[in-house]
Amino acid sequence: MPLTKTSSFWIAVAILVLFLLQLFPSTGIFLMFVGAALLCGLLVHVLLFSVFVEALRGRLPRILVIVPILAYGGYYALYAKQSFDILRKSEALKASNPSNVLRFDPAIYSLALPQTGNFDSSNFAAFHEIPVVYQSNSNFQPEGYISYRLVHGVAYNKAREAISKLRAQKIYAAGSMWPVRVGFEWLKNIGVLQFPEKPPLELITVTEYGGNEIWLGKRDISEKTTEFTLNGKTLATFKTGGVLRLSPIPTLFIGCVLIDNPAAWKCDAEFDRHYQAIDSMPKGVDTKLYDSPTSVVLGIKKRESFDLAKLPEQDIAPLLKKIEDYPQAEAAYAIQRNADLFKDFAGFVESTRIDVVRAGIFSEISYDGSVDPPNGMREAVLGNMQRLTPLRDAMIDRFAALMQAHIMVRNKWVELLTNGLTALPQSAFANLSDDKLGTLWKTLSADRGVDYFRYLYIRTADAGKRTLAAYEKDLLRLRHTSYFSFPILAICRIGEASPEAKTVIEGAYERSAKSDMFDGNVEENSAALVTLIKLHDDAFLKANPVKFTRPNVREWYDLILQGKAVTALGPNNCHGWDRLGPRDFQPPLRPALVWKDNEWVESQPE
Fold first, then answer.
1. How sure is the predictor about 392, in pLDDT bands with cuts at 50, 70 and 90?
2. Do 392 and 463 share a domain, yes or no?
3. Bond preceding residue 262 cis, omega within 30 of 0
4. DSSP E strand boundaries for 331-417
5. Same domain for 596 and 506?
6. In angstroms, rounded to a whole number, what is the distance separating the alpha carbons of residues 454 and 250?
């Protein structure tokens, strides 16, 4: 029989057409959502069945009967081999894994569970006979740990009340309470309490590593190791395994999907697989009582009952006292922590060492072995100007020295240093010696300060008329660049300009006043506007109104021209139009008009 008259031929054509349509994202995206990959795989089964029947009937060469037999035989051979490998691995793990290495006594030991992987500390605390478990968490200091404990009955209600009081003080992250669910039932007056708490006893730490390769496409058995340490010494290791198991019924997917790591349109053919954990419990272990490596190794049983009458009595009065005192304790710790961080920053400022990491154009500095400042240092440094002002000259010298080392200007230590300089009060710039002012300006000029350190560049104008000539020179140098508005704003802060500079600013205003289609136009024009108002060029502004129509732009201009949002420094605190929030600027640079809830709101800078 001619091939084109067989069902197998047209089924094969349908598979080919459906696959080709998936190759192109324009059609493939739609087909992906309607399950074309699964349909393509199902058609393969239809094709193999059709080939088998038509070969038996003589419509195709009878030798082709072997094709579906080989296809399904090969699949089930792989399925059988995987079953054998799983069984062999399971026996090996059972033989090598320890059980009841140490009988956990909560009066002697504290238990810290891993914070990575699939380990759920709250579930372990809820469903096992252990009064409290801990988990390392550096976000909570000075404790460094979070505790989880099952609370019930009267203790549950008292704990809920204590946590509610914390939340009333807007301390949300410190403590949490949630009920326990068994099956589909939420238990009443029983829940898990989470709270920052340091383990008080000898510490048994559980760590998991490995096992993630399976989610990166590994088809072989993946192995995870759970390590138990007591006071830093290895107590035991327990290995578990998992595999992406072939389905008993071959389910094939042929098609394309959109992936995001890296972003791509990926086409493939793959059999359906599901994750299967490999039994690794040592022989003789009652898995109804001991259900995990931690449970087995430390002899911690599962809870047999959640009957309130059968649960042990709890005295959580000491913990309730900790919860009550937590806000005061945290405030005292924050004060000390900020003082320590500021002291570390002062050490960085006064240091003469420049440790360079990486190489070439990617070189960065580190301090005390860290490329980035510790968490919280930025707030500690910028939160107290009284402590920061005495470091002014040392910060300028350190900034100059780092820039001469040709390191990356995006470095976090450099960013913190320049943010500190930018945050100084106006008097700190006004009182700068000519020598230090020269060092600062020379450093900014040499390292494209108007680009990388634009806010410090503008703030240097607070040194007064001594800087006017330098900014007027930059006014001409940058007039055809995207940085043109920065020297204009600096001149606004100084409050004076030569006739020539004033003419350049007027030209910028006229040139950018024709359309507000692009934000860059508005930013340049608004910078010129506040500066010309500060320079008392009212006649020019009245004779040259802007032709802006965007509501959020028009409203800003109306407020400024009405004399709103004026600070001691000038209109809008000598700041142009933008819709950034006040937190995007150091206090001395914050605009007096901020965009909030789709309207302009007056907000006096600190």
1. very high
2. yes
3. yes
4. 355-357, 364-366
5. yes
6. 62
